[in-house]
Design brief:
The protein is built from 6 helices and 5 strands, in the order H-H-H-E-H-E-E-H-H-E-E. It is of the alpha+beta class. Strand 4 and strand 5 form a beta hairpin. Helix 2 runs antiparallel to helix 3.
Length: 229
Amino acid sequence: MQAFAPQYVAWLAALLLTACAPKAEQPSPTDIQAARRAAVEFELRLKREIIGRLEREEDPVAVYLSYADHTPDWGREISNQLELNFSRTALGVRNPANAPDAWESEQLALFTFYMDAGLDPDTFEIAEIVQEGEETVFRWMQPVRMQDTCLVCHGEAIDPRIMLLLAQEYPLDEASGYAEGQIGGAYSVRKVLRVGNQPAPLWQPIPEPQTPLADQRVPGDAPLVTPQE
């Protein structure tokens, strides 16, 4: 009988174990397409309602208030339409409610590493099936790059009136000082597929927020901004 070196036996055993290991569950193409659709839906609204107004040189404070008022509701509407949790996050956020979880932080760090290595951020996308406690979850992320119009509220030279608003509403702001082309964050999708061995519960629509909109606010609801001179 032929004898094999111990290191060869160990290598062969590892190879056999790898070959026999169950393959990781792969995301459904349908879920991936739904996640991409969610991001496109948000981008279209952002282009029409925010970027378009900045390109028309409307007052940036008015555009900022519209952005702050309406973008959370867009996320809610898109989530309810597609029956998944669509959100935006970043390593440095303006609103603490948008802070990334552990999985999102890992992907954001990878996106930054890949971009620093010279890869094209427009090709980045991650889709995985992960286990979170008893829940089997579809996770998806795609980075968002800073455009010139984004710098009105996220760049280094922000309108002083917007700076006043940010200081009052988001004193812990970490989403300023960006340059055009940098990764400013990411779109994120989370969808529960199973709980234990049971199908996920039916989707429960996310309720409308109770925060008054800019054109419905009364003194005390929001910080005041000095008018343009």
